[in-house]
Amino acid sequence: MSLDNPIRTLNPEVARKIAAGEVIDRPNAIVRELLDNSIDSGAKNITLEITGGGIDKIRIIDDGCGMTKEDLAACAHPHATSKIATETDLLNLSTMGFRGEALASIAAVARLSIISGGYKMRASITEDHIIEETAPVKGTIVQSEGLFENFPARRQFLKRAGTEALMCKNTFIEKAMSRPDISFKFINDGEIKLNLPACDSIKERFIAANTYPEDKALFFELTGKASGTEPDWSFTTIIGEPAVSRTNKKEIYIYVNGRKIQEYALVQAVEYGGMGFFPNGTYPVASVFININPKLVDFNIHPAKKEARFYDISDLHHGLSSTIKNFFQGYTRSNFEENKPADEVRPYQQHITYTTPSYSDRSFSDFRSKYFSSSSGKKEADIPLHTFSTESLAFQALQAASEKQDTLSTPKTETIRFIGRCLGTFLLAEKGGSLFIIDQHAAHERLLFDKIMNSQGKNQPLLIPYKIHTESKSQDNQLEKLKNQLTAIGFETEKKEDGYWEISSIPERWTGTEYDLRTLLFVKQVEPEQIIRSIAAMTACKAAVKDGYYLDDETGRKLVEQAFSLPDPHCPHGRPIYTVLSREKLFELVKRT
Fold this sequence. Notes:
Layout: H1 12-23, H2 27-40, E1 45-51, E2 57-62, H3 69-74, H4 102-109, E3 111-116, E4 119-123, E5 130-133, E6 140-145, H5 152-155, H6 161-177, E7 183-188, E8 191-196, H7 202-209, E9 219-225, E10 233-240, E11 245-246, E12 252-256, E13 259-261, H8 264-274, E14 283-284, E15 286-292, E16 297-298, E17 309-310, H9 314-336, H10 364-371, H11 390-403, E18 416-422, E19 426-431, E20 434-439, H12 440-454, E21 459-469, H13 473-489, E22 492-495, E23 500-507, H14 514-523, H15 528-543, H16 553-565, E24 578-582, H17 583-589
Parallel strand pairs: 1-7, 12-15
Antiparallel strand pairs: 1-2, 2-6, 3-4, 3-6, 4-5, 7-8, 9-10, 10-15, 11-14, 12-13, 16-17, 18-19, 19-20, 20-24, 21-23, 22-23
Helix pairs in contact: 1-4, 2-6, 8-9, 10-11, 11-16, 12-15, 12-16
């Protein structure tokens, strides 16, 4: 370092402001830290009041255990806390706060006052724990005023009061969501904006805290837990049905032991659970509330505790995605088994076991073999699928289906009248007094997809096996748990003594590499069944009859019959196969009574 810029120790005031900036960057950070303290105090009623977006004033009133005069004299010093004593306590946290940074950080950038137990304490950059007597109160009142008034360089980066107030409200909702047993009230500039009485159900709190436009009957509560008499984790998930969808993942929330965190793997688990049930490019609205053994998670890795590190997330990931998937399988079957119009779909009442039917028409490989055998005598298995036109493949596949006379049909008590084609894409049919408009591509795609999924497990040996080297005991355990599932879909897996796993065969339609498989398993935490599912969905989509393809009457009729036999009337990407217009709805549309 040059003589003009020698290394020096910062004075305490500057050092405190820098440290505070890691914890307190805007008003909602103060709200976050003070609400954590109120929850830790055992409060049953918590009120948040803000003025000027929280820049001018933030006040939190609770009826918790309160603070003694000695507590007030020490609380706003750096790293002053009653929640941990040794470093080992960090490995077994059961409180929302624990570092002792919040109050000291607030005092470094604002004027802090606390009233509790008949005393009032004031602390700021110019005052140091001034204690005075005051009227006794039940619980604690904590107030922050003049945020960043002594730090203008940071204050200029704050947004308008209305925007900061909205962020404070969102943080308030975030904290209230996981504690339905506590009553929360939010007041902005003297007006009550949100009042959340204590309730018994986390679903009830979820609906009360969020102002979603969809009907509350479209949200469901699912639960799951680890195996064993004393499970290491359990969860409750509130999730909307496929009609409640968004174009991004921003409304998938993850809570762990009461804290909202950013955790890609668990958001992904929700996404995988809903895969195939939500329309293309859309995602669920969901909140996942996880309770996990504190020894298996570390929150001390982010200044604002927005992230966590898990000892082993694979079991939890699988349990969450499987629970959501099983629910939607039953929900879809329950709602569509009677082919009800969309406006008559009833809420899901019970879990129904999902089984994929075995279709009696030719399998996917059957029509490949029949129509695409090489004229030179080359075996069909030697001819790659992608060398053929998928449009031709789709058309001839349907022709094969139309030639078959013993395909599945609906019960004889229900008459299906095939009407014809419409707009080059849709098939029209009448059934049960309603008009069905069927997407020919989506219906055919689902039929092919189910066939491929029914034939999974077919594999091809590798001349040079994959070698998957595990980097931790967690990865090793994960492969051990997934071994049977990987084998079931075509990945022959064996653990070797030299510290690696050998993959000697792969699914016949797998086009990835060793690196791709490792990434899917360890980085993206993809379930084995999702790997084969994505392959099947892509193959079926490419092979299915396309928009604008002309189908003769017999082929169209057969496709309609098969569409009605499907247990899940959605394409693999979540789009509905058909829409339904009842006689009453048609009368309504033409204004006929």
